[in-house]
Design brief:
Layout (H helix, E strand, L loop, with lengths): L9 H7 L30 E7 L5 E6 L2 H9 L5 H4 L5 E8 L2 H12 L3 H14 L9
Antiparallel strand pairs: 1-2, 1-3
Length: about 140
């Protein structure tokens, strides 16, 4: 603890303890495409709230930071326990968020909706942003 009772930050630690070497917050592997010494920035993680329709017509709502991977997991039987016995699942709605907390809040709100309200949400979203032609159609 520092003199004021606060935690040491890197600058204060280096000032008080000259031999102090702090670890980087996030270590990155070197990218062979970039010259050494360049700054490696990662894009911010996007969070998705999604609704899938199961083969029995029921709806499942979840959250993920990789939508394609999560849908593949659901359809491989590695997703939520609820969807494992209701395969295959089809993505019918998704919303994107920058903050995980907002995505979690939205997920809980949608989970509180009754089936009719979820179907209205899905229909409204489809009207606002019509889907492109499906590849298998």
């Amino acid at each position: 603890m520092a003199e004021g009772g606060g935690l040491l930050n890197r600058y204060t630690a280096l000032k008080l303890y000259p031999g102090f070497k702090s670890l980087p917050l996030r270590q990155k592997q070197a990218d062979p495409e970039k010259p050494s010494g360049s700054l490696h920035l990662t894009p911010p993680t996007m969070w998705y709230v999604y609704i899938v329709q199961c083969c029995d017509g029921s709806l499942y709502t979840g959250i993920t930071n990789d939508l394609k991977k999560r849908l593949d997991a659901h359809n491989a039987g590695l997703g939520a326990k609820y969807t494992r016995s209701r395969l295959p699942v089809l993505l019918v709605h998704s919303e994107r968020f920058r903050a995980k907390g907002r995505a979690l809040s939205r997920e809980m709100a949608i989970k509180g909706f009754d089936r009719k309200r979820k179907l209205v949400l899905i229909a409204q979203a489809a009207k606002r942003c019509p889907k492109q032609k499906r590849r298998d159609a």
